[in-house]
Give the backbone structure.
Amino acid sequence: MKKDFLWWRDGIIYQIYPRSFADSNDDGIGDLPGIISKLDYLQALGVDAIWLSPIYPSPDVDFGYDVADYCEIDPKFGTMQDFEALVKGAKKRNIHIILDLVLNHTSDQHPWFLEAKKSQNNPYHDWYLWQDPKPNGEPPNNWESWFGGPAWELDPDLGQYYYHMFHKEQPDLNWRNPDVRAAMLDVFHFWLKKGVDGFRLDVFNAYFKDPEFKDNPSQFGIRAFDRQKHIYDVSQPEMFPLLEEIRTMMDKRKDTFVVGETFLADPQQTAQYCGDGKLNAAFNFDFAQNRWHPKRFLQSALRWYQSLGDSAWPNNFLSNHDMRRAASRYCLGEDDRRAKVAAAMLLTFKGTPFMYYGEEIGLRDIPIRNISEVKDRVGKTYWPLFTGRDGCRAPMHWNDQIHAGFSSAEPWLPVHANYPKRNVDQQITDPESLLIFCKHIIQVRKEEPVLQRGDFIPLVKDPRHFLAFLRTYQDDQVLVVLNFSSRELIYDIPEGTWVSLFGEDEPNHGLISLAPYDVRLFKKVE
Ligand code: NOJ
């Protein structure tokens, strides 16, 4: 590893959904000791950081994204000692820890909200967004909740509405109140002192809303939420000075990282939040939402790089806890060949790769066949149009034992029926498996700084079947060729002498033949 290796730029970040990774106490829910028991696995895979979805006490209306205490560990995940042990164990293996901070809203069970509801004179009342009803009793404006229904909930005792962008049990905080701002910055400090290296900010660009609560203008859309232009409930200018404050605070420590989840923002808007005095990075949803076509991926990556310019380092992801897994979207049945191409793309494109737990073994979404099985309330609301996010949150497959080795108790979500064949134990011994494939590319990436931080030069401008691009850094050049098609293809590699870094060892100059879904990496030697 090079001396100037910067973990969040050059490394690989692995997202863990703690409920579903490994269950140490057999209650059917994953936990921190479970994660600790898999640190060797993560180290061997080659990840440099783990992002933990929320681990704080939560009534789980939104499975952890409704926080009832920002500075504690939910007992279902373990204790603060477990967390400290996790940080220690991770550090020992050079794995950094990124926590998910959900600061746009709290749980309605958070003591602040319980106080806020007591009376309009309570000191915590103004920590949330309360408004009087209109004279006819209606909500103060037309804002809708992302999860369905009006974004305002009437508190009959107070005779006032409070605002919630998500479920009504997730009241939004009033970030204009300086006490809220100070309390939130304390949360950063608290976890930094515990040894955390970075944060993922949940829907950060929703923190501020229009101070006059103006109605959003309307537009065409299917859901009520989509029938509005969200110009007053998200992306307000006040976010910029706050990001600067966060950044200044983070920069007091070495090599810290903040990545933001933008809400309802296109790549250009998202990019505006990144750079000096702002976030280190933000997520590019545009890339993850592409259909299986090389040109689509190339174009959205180029749009992303162009939007960011030189001001911030990109990152890429294809799966997370809110969307169907890439393997479910792109692969045909149990065939992993597209998952290999997708993984290779993620690991060789310019930008920090974010992998979602199980992506390395091609975990597929579990099927959700009946509304009675649904755990994610969003799935219940929109059934059958949208069945919710349970599919991508099912337990990790460790082996072919009961419940895939995740737990010996019935897991909170069922394991996929394919687990006897698709699991870590099985793939680790199979040289052709997706897991071995990922480990191999990760290894190559680790040895080649050019793959970590090199420039990106597409060689085929209008790709229909395959991608060919160069990564260049100082005197190094790596050529990557990814065949997205099920057909054999011929590619004329650029002049020069190339040695193979990955894939078949044959001709390293002139014409090369690409097998269906082939992945080839070459390094220029002169
Ligand atoms: C975005 C998170 O990724 C999602 O899981 C959550 O439901 C919402 N924010 C609300 O916190």
In short: Residues 7-107+177-442 form a domain with the TIM Barrel fold (CATH 3.20.20.80). The first strand starts at residue 13 and ends at 16. The chain is about 25% helix and 15% strand. The first helix runs from residue 7 to 10.
